[in-house]
Amino acid sequence: MFEDIFNLYEWGAVRQSIYGKTSADVERALAGTHRDLEDFKALISPAAAPYLEEMAQLSHRLTQKRFGKVIQLYIPLYLSNECQNICTYCGFSYDNKIRRRTLTGGELVTEARAIREMGYEHVLLVSGEANHTVGVDYFVRALDVIREHFAHISMEVQPLDREDYSLLMQHGLNTVLVYQETYNRQDYRLHHLKGKKSNFGYRLAAPDRLGAAGIHKIGLGVLIGLEDWRTDSWFTALHLQYLERTYWRTKYSLSFPRLRPFEGEERERPYGLQPKVEMKDRELIQLICAYRLLDEEVELSLSTRESPVFRDHAVRLGITAMSAGSRTNPGGYVVDPGSLEQFEIDDDRSPAVIAEMIRRQGYEAVWKDWDPVLQG
Amino acid sequence: MEDAIVASGSELVTVALRRVDVQRSDDDLLYHLRHPHLHLLPNTSGVRSAREAVFAAELAREALGTNWLKLEIHPDPKWLLPDPIETLAAAEELVRRGFVVLPYIHADPVLCKRLEDVGVAAVMPLGSPIGSNKGLKTYDFLEIIIAQSRVPVVVDAGIGAPSDAAKAMEMGADAVLVNTAIAASADPVRMAKAFKLAVESGLMAWEARLAEESERAVASSPLTAFLD
Lengths: 376, 228
Fold this sequence. Notes:
The complex is a heterodimer. Chain A is α/β, with parallel strands linked by helices. Chain A has 15 helices and eleven strands.
């Protein structure tokens, strides 16, 4: 299991190693063709900052080699904002006094139809962790509804057991995203105060359970801002490489959620969490390029959390998938537009506008890149 | 895309089932491939096993109205290299079900003969990994395959430049399958035309050399002339 590999590395030592990388290390990393995790350290280190343009050119070419001039479009569909966990950064936190909502079957159909109207074939189902109301049974029913409408189904929900994943796959599930949030155990404890999510190890092993169940694709990532993003990203890369080697039939995807503000009444704890280490736009570009230079086939996804200007330029820099027109609240498209969002959106341009933006850059906006018939 | 395909002079276009909406008759991709001289070759890119390939093929046949199939099983997303075991199993089953099977495989001469035995319509060995544009890295093995094959040989994957295509035709391949080199070029239509010319020239060279070789065998026998 990944934890065996993970425990071999100490956070402080890794962090020190990254910050100790020099421009010589960066140049060596850029020159090579098979880059390893040491090269990745150099590429995400401060020493690589002056080499950003070169990294971007390389990332652009490498991405085109594997993916062509293509951006995959997908959209989140929030099933529920019920949640039994207390997490310091999230609008759905159990102790946040908001109106809780879970979509019924009929409401799910309405939301699905609205999304299909926009052109989407790839959908990402999202929920909080509330196993009584939004547990595996609910997910099975949701999948049965959704699979009538979409060619490709992803989920981003609480970590589940292997048997649960197998069951959901039988009902059409293709991809699961499970972000570790932070790979720093101590920091993880500070931010995940209550509920099943406070179990670091169970979450860490979720990708292993997914790989063992034979899932088609696994999405990894950290919540940038909880900890030093460079060290957290290195651990993400470590996780990615372990998984690629172990579950070699599975595809992988990475995301880069940056801490964003959210609503809610005032509470004791300081909500409106400030990132511990701020990540500038240049640094996010550096990270995207570094991942591409390390791994030619990993999918890199950028959500509507990022600004229009940033997203426009990211199209040619290594990103392979984007969401657009997203609503991060259950019922947000039709049924209940006023319910609380999980995160604030920065780029609220419609899918049609985004697709046109992509086309204008000489790229193709792909709506459909999967078919249920391929999953048997 | 449409213009490039027309410029290439190709008559066979492979289409990933994952990309087309087989339910919709007005699917955008398929619409642009509607030319009388163009034949569709659906492919199963995305499946990871023989079972999935067969299932997908049946649906493709029904939806797209063709029993031609590019059998493509590459469970490894890193290099997209084809799984020989699943491919052979799927090929056998699909031939039995009446498909015209064109399997994508590594340049393994033994595997090619095994596929031939189960009745595939052609073999499609790779030149180098999909998308790599590295040309005919498997040249030596392609030579063996071409020499031994009783079915057409299509060099598929890794062809990065028109010169690679010309080389493949010169060595006796029956066709080449090209995507990335054209699609990702700065001027796909022009590149498609370049490939057309390369394939024609390679084919002509192959035909010319055959003629030359047969003459040579008759004309000179320096080692044994002393016996006359």
